[in-house]
Amino acid sequence: MNNWFAALEPFEKVYWIIALTASVIFIILTLLTFIGGEFEETGDVDADIEADTGIGFQFLSFKNLIGFFTIFGWTGISCIGNGLSNGLTILISTICGLIMMTIMASLFYYLGKLNSSGSLKIKNALNQIGEVYLTIGANRSRIGKVHINIQGGMRELDALTDDASELHQGDIIIVTEITGTGILIVNKHTN
Asked: What mean pLDDT comes out for the span 158-179?
């Protein structure tokens, strides 16, 4: 391996070093993405969530630069292997790297547009049918919990009732009102 690398021209060595280094980092970033690892590029994400309108078009980012150098390096090696001049090799590999950056920036931009906020809109619980999870006291005497399917997912929410009798675990309920604090007012559901 050392003999092979030592036999390369300095121009070709630079391309090999760029290609191999960028490829290793690219593979690590890809694996972290698939296993749920996070790589924070800039700033405190939590501070920006309230006014978040999605990901803007980010041409210069760490991931895009790694994509650039990965394609730049391998395209350069390919050009050198095909006997192209140094100037043409630099030109072609730079153009290919910029194309890769544009593709990645566009991909992240459009994927960000597909993202939903995930915020629970409590008003969507109104008139929904659910099930009592923890006993709810009669006449709003004790907060209990109910399971309600809202926005495509099962949620456990606090609830009160105006019924004269307690609602027990397993009782089927319907949401009739929502208080200003987000507590559901439910009644026993009759078919």
From this structure: 93
